[in-house]
Amino acid sequence: MAVKNQVQLITYPDSMGGDLKALNRVLLEHFTDVFKGGIHILPPFPSSGDRGFAPLTYLDIEPSFGTWEDIRAIGDHFDVLVDLMVNHISRQSEYFQDFLQKGRKSEYADLFLTLDKLWEAGEPVQEDIAKMFLRRPLPYSTYTIAETGEEEKVWTTFGKTDPSEQIDLDINAQLFKQLITDFFMNFKRQNVKIVRLDAVGYVIKKLGTSCFFVEPDIYEFLDWMMELANSLEIDLLPEVHAHYTTQYKLAERGYWIYDFILPYRVLEALINKSSDDLCHYLRTRPEKQFTMLDCHDGIPVKPDMDDLIDTQEARKLVDVCLERGSNLSLILSDEHKADDGFDVHQIRCSFYSVLNGDDDAYLAARAIQFFAPGVPQVYYVGLLAGENDLEGVTKSGEGREINRHNFSLEEIEQSLKKEVVQRLLKLIRFRNDYEAFNGKFTVLDSSKDEIRLAWKKEDWSCSLFINLHTNKSVIEYSDVEGRTVQYVV
Fold first, then answer.
1. Are 195 and 229 a contacting pair, CB within 8 Å?
2. Second label for 275, Cα 20 to 30 Å away, from 211, 246, 263, 364?
3. Does residue 227 carry a catalytic annotation?
4. Distances from the Cα of 460 to the Cαs of 139, 288, 350, 438, 457, in angstroms?
5. DSSP state of 35
6. Predicted model pTM
7. How wide is the angle at C-alpha 401 spanned by C-alphas 295 and 417, nearest 5°?
8. Nearest to 429 by CA among 397, 477, 393
9. Is residue 239 flagged as an active site residue?
10. Among 50, 170, 198, 304, which one carries the catalytic annotation?
11. Which helix (H) or strand (E) holds 396?
């Protein structure tokens, strides 16, 4: 299968030069030996909102980004990873637009979760809704059917508008299975190697449950998805933000998972100058993971870190992040806040800025990420050591824009001249090419203010030493002739 134990890039289709053609040029010019693990292109499909996460279809590419030909061109040199928002599709999609026109007579009517599929009378019951993990005040929207003037209530987990732009799909409908199969077959034709299942935790709607990661139903669904993906030689990456034990259940079943715990643990170690929690975590975590520090959303806190952090200590860490220009996304429902009211969902920032623009601290963070077992992903802003885009937040009113700056070709060239970026590229190349990373990982004993990690495979061995007081990182490794070489990161 496609997943390689090497570093991947995460980028929007228009964030490195303006479109997919420019992205390909930048990759070939500067990064052919850097992102050997592949390129995760955040949704390049036509979309009606949420910066690509409300797709109209997966059969086309948004014309302002380019074409499938551009995706295939990137795929000629890099494994391509794309998202599938398996839970929902855009209100503007041809499928839902047909339903809005014809109602139950639409050939696509069964694709959507009208409320009578959940409640016999078609009317929501508040007692059931109270148990659900909600992403908006009500998990449904009301739409008017053009031909009849009748109103239809349809399930909508996500969406900032009312009625929502993101319409949930009925995974039990035969039409759903056909549609997903068509999308996957198209991905195969376009040389896509890995598909991230976005929002997959929400696909099961079952009364009396939270309607989030409902067991065992979710495993039946994922097994079906896995069978489909395997038949096309595509790897799957389920994306689930939940209590860490939920991720571990997926790992036990052999699925790739995201390490949403590592970013907080790394940040905490570097800010508090203590390696205890980080080292304990690195000793006990599953190894089959995709690792990240930064992404298009933020550093996960709740629910990912529930039962792993002391909320009073977490507040202090969050306050430091706020002092350094970060903003927060918060948990909406009281039921899912901590007992003391702690409600931070994600810390939104550039990872470089949250470490105060300290080059050594930033390189130490990346060194820890690259030494942690798993497939490392580097977000494009982090790659270029980009800083908090406060202007972007002010202009858009969207807190996540703090870490979504679009780099022009000129800005990329300027960023590549920065010493911190060159040091990061050198570290990525080492992580890609040094054979010991395909061997056995060990967390070595160390004092509280140090981090010592090691890898060994046959005659190849390397160890990382970080002094948390100075943030200096040193790698010792054996070269082809068996000599010990010291590399100051």
1. yes
2. 246
3. no
4. 54, 21, 34, 10, 5
5. -
6. 0.96
7. 70
8. 477
9. yes
10. 198
11. helix 390-396
**Phi and psi angles of residue 138, each rounded to the nearest 5 degrees, phi first:** -125, 140
Burial of 192: CB neighbours in 10 Å, binned 0-12, 13-18, 19+: buried
> Which long-range contacts link 316-321 to residues 24+ away (Cβ below 8 Å)?
317/267, 317/268, 317/271, 317/272, 318/344, 318/347, 320/271, 321/267, 321/347, 321/349, 321/354
One-letter amino acid identity for 265?
Answer: R
Q: What's the CA dihedral at 453, 458, 459, 460 to 10 degrees?
A: -40
3-class secondary structure per residue, 138-195: CCEEEEECCCCCCEEEEECCCCCCCCCCEEEECCCCHHHHHHHHHHHHHHHHCCEEEE
**Cα–Cα distance between 253 and 251 in angstroms, integer?**
5
Show pLDDT as tens, one digit a residue, over the chain (489 residues).
579 999 999 999 999 999 999 999 999 999 999 999 999 999 999 999 889 999 999 999 999 999 999 999 999 999 999 999 999 999 999 999 999 999 999 999 999 999 999 999 899 999 999 889 888 889 999 999 999 999 999 999 999 899 999 999 999 999 999 999 999 999 999 999 999 999 999 999 999 999 999 999 999 999 999 999 999 999 999 999 999 999 999 999 999 999 999 999 999 999 999 999 999 999 999 999 999 999 999 999 999 999 999 999 999 999 999 999 999 999 877 777 899 999 999 999 999 999 999 999 999 999 999 999 999 999 999 999 999 999 999 999 999 999 999 999 999 999 999 999 999 999 999 999 999 999 999 999 999 999 999 999 999 999 999 999 999 999 999 998 889 999 999
d(CA 289, CA 442): 16
As separate numbers, helices (DSSP H) first and strands (DSSP E) second, the chain gives: 16, 20
**Residue found under tokens 């061109």:** 73
Task: Give φ, ψ of 293 to 5 degrees.
Answer: -115, -40
- Distances, alpha carbon 395 to alpha carbons 391, 392, 405, in Å: 6, 5, 12
Q: What are the distances in angstroms from CA 166 to CA 58, 87, 280, 334, 423?
A: 15, 9, 40, 24, 41
**Token digits for 322?**
């706020």
List 114's β-bridge partners, or say none.
154
Task: For 172-319, list the strands marked E by DSSP.
Answer: 192-198, 235-238, 257-259, 289-291, 299-300
- Of 344, 419, 347, 411, nearest to 381 by C-alpha is 411
- Angle at CA 164, nearest 5°, toward 108 and 127? 95
